[in-house]
Every structure is written in structure tokens, then in C-alpha cells.
Amino acid sequence: MRVLWVTLLILAADQITKVWVKLTMLPQESIPVLGNFFRLTFTENPGMAFGLSLGSKLFLTLFSLVATVLIGVYLWHVRKGPTGYRVALALILGGALGNIIDRVFYGLIWGYDRLFYGNVVDFIHFDIWRGVVPESVPLLGGRYFAIFPIGNIADLAIIGGVAAIILFQRRFHNAMVEAESARAEMAPAMEPVASVAPPVDGMASVPPTPMAGEESAAG
């Protein structure tokens, strides 16, 4: 499938940038790119994307492996679906593989833990908003909040793929239904027609010549 080139591109970009961060930046080091809004901040995340957590680290790694395999199987299942839909799935697959490499191998490669216990390298830092929520907002009013997600290329690919599927879900669904209908209409025309070759003139009435063993048995 040609869309797997998208997966490989995301995977390569993700791993190259993570290795670069590991080799050139110190933990918690932050480099301004667009002022304080966009920075490169090196953190190592033991949880999910943008620091979310789900049970133990081993459980999270195994869960991610199973989910990634299922995404790959589903992508193969819809390999004849709309190109946009397959590209979105390829983005998600590439992002999932990128973070799985961190969780499975990075602890062992970088010498801080064993196999399946690695941390995900994050460095793309957006300082979106910091401040006190207005009192008029229910439940959250008067509280201080800081929204500053830190992720990586794999996270951005996953978010982009999921967003594309959500935004264009109806278009993808209609295209897949039309493709299935077209294949169903073409199926009868593609079925081979059974035919029996007519006997060759002058050969139908000629009995088969018995073998030597058959002549002796008959005698």
C-alpha cells in the first residue's frame, strides 16, 4: 500500500528528532522558537500523549502494542477505501509506532530501565494559555490554569489523523459505500462462464485403444 510511505515518513521524522533532542538537549531545557508561545522543551513522558496516564507503564506499553496492531490490520482491511481515509489511518499508525519504539526500546537503549519500560521523548511545547478562569465559568471559575501541552511529531500525527477522520467522516463513509456498491455491481460481470468444448469431428465415435495389460486381462 502506497499510503504506508506516509507511515514510514512520520516514523523516520519522529525518531530522528527524538534522537537529536536526546543527544543535544538537557532534561527540562527549553529553547524559544516563537517567543514563549512555541518552544523546544525536553521532557521524558512515562505516560500517554501530552503526559496523560493509563495504569502501569508495562500495561500502557502492551496496550499500545495491541492498539497499533489493530490499526495496521484495519488499514489493510480498508486498503481499497478512499485515499484520504487511508492517509489519515497511516498518520495514526506512524505516530503510534513512533511512541511504541520509545516505550519498548528507549529504556534499554539509553540505559535507564529495562525493555518495555521506556519513556516517550517529548519536546514540542506550546504555551497556549496561563491565567485565572473567570468567576462566571461554572466549576472552574476563580482557579488558576496553565495549558502548555508538550508532545512530539508522533503525537501531532496521531492528532492530525484523528481530526481528519472526524472532520471528513461523512465524506469517507459515502465514498466507501459507493466503492462497495460498484464492486458488487461488477461482481456478476466478472464471474467466469462455464463452457463445454464440442467434440472434435470424427473423434467422438472412435473407442479408446486398450492398453496391453487390458488386452491380456480381457483374454
Task: Characterise the protein shown here.
With 219 residues, the protein is α+β, with helices and mostly antiparallel strands. The protein has one domain (4-190). Helix content is 52%, strand content 14%. The chain has helices spanning 4-24, 57-77, 83-109, 153-167, 169-190, 212-218, and strands at 30-34, 38-45, 120-126, 129-132, 144-147, 150-151. The strands form two sheets. It has a four-stranded antiparallel sheet with strand order 1-2-3-6. Helix 1 runs parallel beside helix 3 and helix 2 runs antiparallel to helix 3 (83-109). The protein is globular, with a radius of gyration of 30 Å.
Compact summary:
With 219 residues, this protein is of the alpha+beta class.
